[in-house]
What does this fold into?
Amino acid sequence: MWLKTLLTVSPAAAASVPKQGRTKWCLWLASIMVVMGLGQLLGISPVDSLQAAEVVAQGSAEVLKGAPELAAADYPRVGNSSSRAVVWILAQMHLFFAAFVLAVPLFVVVIEWVGVKTGDARYDDMAHEFMKVSMTAYSITALFGGTLAFALFLLYPDFMGYMLEVFGSQVLVYALLFFLESAILYMYYYSWYALRYGNAKYVHLSLGLLLNVVGTTLLVIANAWATFMMAPSGVDANGAVTGDIWEIIRGPLWNPVNLHRFIANIAFGGAIVGAYAAYKFLSGRSNTEKAHYDWMGYTSNFIAVLSFLPLPFAGYWLMAEVYAYSQQMGITAMGGILAWLFIVQAVLIGTILLASNYYLWSGMSRTEGSYRYKWLVKYIAIVLTGGFLVWVTPHTLILSAKEVAALGGSHHHLLGPLGIMPAKNIAVNLMLIVTFLSFQLYRRSDKVATVSWAPAGNALMVAIYVIAVVNVIFAGVYYGYFTNTVYKVGSSVMQVVSTLVVIVAGVVIDGMMYKGAKKLPSEWGKVSNRSQYALFALPVAFTWLMALMGYVRSSVRGSWHVYTVMKDSSPDNFIPAIGYAGNMMTIVTVMFLLCVLFVFWIASLSSTKQIPPDSQ
Amino acid sequence: MGTLPKVLGFSLALTLVFTVTANLLPQVEGEPPKEEKVDLGALTMDSFIALGESAFNGKGTCTLCHNNLGRAPDLLEMNVGEAAKERLADSRYQGKASDIEGYLRESMTDPSIYVVAGFGKKGSNDTESPMPAVDKKPIELSAVQIDAIIAFLQSKDGNEVTVALPTEAAVEDSEPTGTVAATPAVAAAATVEEAIAKYGCSACHSVYDTESPVGPDLRDVGSRLGEEEIRQSIIDPAAVIAEGFPAIMPANFAERMTVKELGLLVQGLAAMQ
It folds into this structure.
């Protein structure tokens, strides 16, 4: 109804306003649509609520319809192909691109804002170029999303039927928001130069803000489907809807997944545009071009690493909520059949941290001021390598009798203690702390603090690092090895807080200490080609990592489509072995990389101009 | 070489590293629980207890938490019967059970009725258990499986097994479908070869035509040890450790074996000279 009213009113109303006010009018309309869409989404779908209330009022007179119970024959098959494999690939490709296109506008608006505040046009140009890359990716997202929907309805019709029954008209809100997202995205991108200066720039920034509001709403709506499958709410034990749409959406895992995906998307988006910048840097011919893409690569890495640092903590919250919801599910993920995946995760995160640190160290060559800090690099490298080795140390291994005899038991007497979580918590927190140190040293390299309290500020920063490192090690060793499991879990909170204190204190102290600092000469483009490969390692590892964690998140349901509510009776209702899953992850990662290269090529093509034949 | 091949080559090589890592790890598939019928007519107390152990370790997923990692009471380590008596006498106990069997059944189907101190959900002050009701989704143990687990828990510490063997008639009354969905009972070994295979002796010992250096060679064990010594080395392997071998033999074979199986093994091994 509200949509009909809106559509009826808008042309006439639009015609009645002066031309210069139309942008404002369009914005107002768009805002109303978002608010009403959200109202529909959050405002407890009236139809669903009434139906539920009626059923409750009728008491036992009407039996609520639960989730269907299926047999293997109820799942249509296409030839001998694995339906799960088909949906796996399509869903993962859609999620990769969706993560990218939702993330880019988030940091683009911030960069655009920085450009406005500093008056430096380079920021504005870079923000526009980031958007250019994401435009082609947007179409690919929609293509994979559509194909995924077709595949799901074809291969899992009963499951999709049940999900539609539960979520009802909420999916239409999603579709509507998708239209809105597309409209605002095109307006935002194509009005870039039309709304570049003066007050018009603020209209453009508002468009960007609106784009992100709609994009984030899309993200959290889609998250509700995934988290409902993991921890259903608003339904009874048989899967019959008993609550309103808001109760269904706000399951116990919804917000942890929202936060985790929001942060992860930004890190992922930053890594992808970093690869674009690196590619352009390597293929650039002129120094100007190299300097521009070097700076762009640095900014992308900055975005990726800064968003990546708090990610483990968001992951920690998610897993804590998983345990609170179902201890069985939590243990399946962390200590059961899926526990081996965390060895691969360690390799991936180790790669990300090593690559981002290496890039920062290489980037120090841009300024001569970096000689003050270069001596620290080897110590950071030692901590990173040591932490990485501890992280990949497995707790238990499936051993042959000969190996058991050689080890003298199922655990190595020295390495065994390094395989448990307290050791890994120490390792990962120290790795995060030294990565922040690399970042801080890099940021300081081309500056000299001029404030009078600089020595005291430095001393305070050093003290914070020392206390944090001591606290991380003490909490891990004492509570991890000399107390029971309850304290072990509690100690990791102390460690996380220590790491966060270092990051926050570092940002605040440096922000104040280097305000009005003396700038040392710094030359963009003066960086080795080798360093650019670190910018390719990041998106490759991020992509594989996203696929891996998606597999874990999905697999903890075991043989359930919707945990405890709707059984998966398909031939694929088992958790596949890590080798098979790894091969699937590689397939989707390679497919994504090829698509991304296509996106880069298209983005470059748009700025390529053929020289007129008569001017040659 | 151009930028594109270099970038592609680097990215693919890195992807390959992750793929190889995943393929080098132990490959385990998570099978959904299999529902199979148990022949109640052929069920003996030994096979009923074995059925309980199988459900405890398998479909019931009990060992996910009830292990030595401290997430839940370590049922395999503690004397469950003694602990149940103490809890029934605890002033915090608000349930309806009056004996060990009833307490164990109640703790499985309504775990929050009594929560062992320190094992409650975070913030619940030990009034709410993190354990799911095992007769409900997602575990869905049948009444027979729950009884079998109780029998297993009672028998493992040498306590009296008070649970009666299920009968077809009783099951038909309690199971709406008239069938018993349960994990299969492990059949008792009928020969010494079957017993050796069932308990995996050859994983550590050289026996018949398999070689393993972890434990002492069993092919001539009868020439070194008498029947009583062999019996002791199975029931209490830590009592005497053979020189030059690690003390890693599991101590729970006596709990897992039926009396008949133990006798078969002792006689069979004593004959190996």
